[in-house]
Design a protein that fits this description.
Elements lengths: L3 H15 L4 E4 L5 E6 L3 E8 L2 E7 L1 E6 L2 E6 L2 E5 L3 E8 L7 E7 L2 H13 L15 E5 L2 H12 L4 H21 L3 H9 L1 H16 L7 H8 L3 H12 L3 H19 L3 H7 L5 H12 L7
Antiparallel strand pairs: 1-2, 2-9, 3-8, 4-7, 4-9, 5-6, 5-8, 7-10
Helix pairs in contact: 1-3, 2-4, 3-4, 6-7, 7-8, 9-10
């Protein structure tokens, strides 16, 4: 029987093969990303899209609302909403890089699969947590690891990628839902009302970063009271709506600047009409001025 160390070694080899240099790699499958990171760094503010990230080698910490989430060799990080977090990379080098696989998570696809599981009468694993948090980490089980390895193997053959890729992705989704920690995800997916409302609000914020959107506006958009919306938003996203809006705006502005846009334009595109305020909040968040990015 193949043990997990052997499986992780094969996963690391497959990632190295298809991600030979430092950086993020988009594969032929839209949902599948590969990561190779060579340099250690302290806590940095980033926005993580909804994804399952499996670490084949290395260690990374993600910080959110005073909680540290570790995903290291043999563990995964799962996020079910776009999350504004801080991440820290430790213990990596050119000879021992961080190697990871990312699978983008589609909440609607997950919900559809859960309905199919319920219809088949699958007994649900008892949730380890009862909250509706949109993030968790857990050790990766062999069946999830095997499916991920098989998915990466298809990258060697475009026909296999096309024919087999989507079905293996469904298997990976199923393995997440079947995990004990997946009980929290099931809570999220089954709370169709409020979770859909929070998801709609998050989507609206991300699509309207250049506009001033208040908590009252968001609550009205999704048909909730302002106090109820604020409480539920923080329960799922771990930050208040206003904090989330600021973090998303600043991270998007940073991306614009790194793409080549000037500082004033980047600030304006994410809703800052005052260059001084933008510069002040940007430096507070990232430790450097926008012009030094």
């Amino acid at each position: 029987m193949v043990n997990q160390d052997t499986r992780l070694a094969e996963l690391a080899q497959l990632i190295s093969k298809h991600a030979p240099d430092n950086g993020l790699y988009q594969t032929a499958l839209h949902q599948l990303l590969l990561f190779r990171e060579l340099e250690m760094h302290g806590r940095e503010a980033v926005v993580y899209e909804p994804a399952l990230i499996i670490a084949a080698q290395g260690r990374k910490y993600v910080y959110l609302d005073g909680t540290r989430y570790e995903y290291s060799t043999g563990n995964f990080l799962a996020l079910f909403m776009p999350m504004a977090v801080e991440c820290e990379m430790i213990g990596v080098s050119e000879s021992e890089p961080m190697l990871a696989v990312g699978v983008r998570l589609d909440r609607h696809r997950l919900a559809k699969l859960l309905l199919k599981m319920d219809g088949a009468g699958q007994s649900s694993a008892k949730p380890q947590i009862s909250s509706t948090s949109g993030i968790f980490t857990s050790p990766v089980k062999d069946n999830l690891l095997d499916a991920t390895i098989r998915l990466l193997r298809t990258l060697d053959d475009p026909v296999e990628t096309t024919v087999l890729g989507e079905s293996i992705l469904d298997e990976i989704y199923y393995r997440i839902l079947s995990d004990e920690q997946g009980g929290a995800l099931k809570v999220l997916l089954r709370q169709q009302g409020q979770i859909q409302q929070i998801s709609k609000a998050v989507e609206h914020l991300n699509e309207n970063l250049d506009k001033n959107v208040s908590v009252d506006d968001l609550a009205g958009l999704v048909g909730m009271s302002s106090s109820g919306f604020h409480k539920k938003f923080k329960e799922v996203m771990h930050v208040s709506p206003l904090q989330y809006t600021k973090l998303i705006r600043l991270n998007k502005a940073k991306a614009y600047i790194m793409e080549g846009k000037n500082v004033s334009e980047a600030g304006y595109l994410v809703g800052y009409n005052s260059p001084a305020q933008f510069s002040r909040e940007y430096k507070r968040q990232f430790g450097v001025s926008p012009s030094a990015t």
